[in-house]
Amino acid sequence: MKPDLRDYIPSVGLGLTQILGYGSLMYAYAVLLPRMADHLDLSLSTVFGILSLGLLFGGLVSPVAGMLVDRFGGRWVMTLGSIGAGLALMSLSQVSGKFGLFLAILLAEGAGMFVLYNVAFAAIMRIESRVPAARAISIIALFGGVASTIFWPLTLSLANAFGWQSTWITLGLMVLLICTPLHFVLLGGPQKGPEAITAPLNQDWPELQGAVRQKAMLWMILSFVFSGYVMGAVMTLWVSNVQTLGHTAATAAFAGAVIGPFKTVGRGFEMLVSRNLYPLVTYAMSLGLMMAGFILLLGFGASFIGLLCAAALYGMGDGIKTIARGTLPLALFGQQGYGARLGWMSFVQMAVNASAPFTFAYLAEQFGGWWSFAAMAACLCFALATYFLIPDPRRNRHVAA
Questions:
Q1: Rounded distance, CA 344 to CA 299, Å?
Q2: For residue 154, what are the domain limits?
Q3: Are the C-beta atoms of residues 78 and 183 closer than 8 Å to each other?
Q4: What is the pLDDT of residue 179?
Q5: Facing residues of 208 across strands?
């Protein structure tokens, strides 16, 4: 049977919670951490180094969250996670030094691993639904794409009007009062049985087995690591890096806000063509668009139009990549153990990518924002190189299940 509108409610609702989750647990740092650094008399590299440690801790927690969803479903995992995330965000308003900042960010990023994309993708996979899994993932990611559009200017406005302490309290309350009930209600439906979980996702997408499966996992994770290294840096350093190119903070925030709508444009395009495109193709498209954005940024980022066009291209690529991050492991390795697999992949990525804010903040301090962006572009080159080493099951059906 074809899905009706009611079947899409869980995906749409989870997409709304991703707007709040990424807006408060990721994008808000770009605006608020520099202000906190000034107030606490800390350097920019110190506060972003603390954030890096928080991201590393989140990576350690991620496999646990994935395994819990595989075993129990996403309802209680995401409900309790949103409570923890909301309280942790509010605690950021009370920090008075390095140790307090470290502890609050540690709690926020740990709780975030129970409510952000990987867990949301795994949770929607467990629900008995007529909506195809890849389509449900695309819908969740489609909504999450506007997080930067909403939260960079919103956070900047709140901070200018009320200060960074009140802003963190407001963000925490939003997560508590909106995400918690949505997670509890939306994920309470029937869960898939063992037979549905072990069934092939798509008859035209054979799963890899044996040694080639391990090879695919290795190169896919490496490619995700390199491209994710860039994403973490852009989310936290876009505003401050763009300012060093000669723009004001308001202009940098506005250009950053452009990224979000074009993430949605990219994801909307992916949804239109996803029935005809294999996830390896969409992932290649995403890397190409992100690389084009950085080339434009490095060449013409000092101009307002060049900055906006670069943000648009990068946003489209990053938007499509988020979907590929969920659908490519499904296509290559199947549904069984999907949550735990995403969790372990997230652990590896975040263990490496946790250093991104500190690394690129240090480069920006020492050499300027342009060179920080140039280093991000180099990471994308490595992501493209490792992408081409991922085996395609459609061309290797003799080694696929």
A1: 37
A2: 5-399
A3: yes
A4: 95
A5: 400
